[in-house]
Amino acid sequence: MPTFEAEARFRREYAKLTQGEREQFRVARIKFVTGLRAGRVSSSLRIKRVQGTTDVYEMTWAPDGRATFRYGDAVRLRSSYRLAPCRRPRYLR
To answer: Could you list the residue range(s) of the whole structural domain that residue 16 is in?
Structure first.
């Protein structure tokens, strides 16, 4: 079962999101976790590895809705991931 560990960067970026952006992120996270449990994550989240990295991935659910994450060590002896919402680029604000 997937678990979630919020890093300091996540908490900082999440605090900057509007209520609507938080709701969009919550829905995307539920879809992501549901997919991990089922063994197949929805293609609507457009998950891909971040270019130039070996262990950072991003999922995108809207033009201004994006989060990066890593698959990490098990938390409480279960599979885990770490998500960090990304702020919208200035030109999208």
So the answer is: 3-87
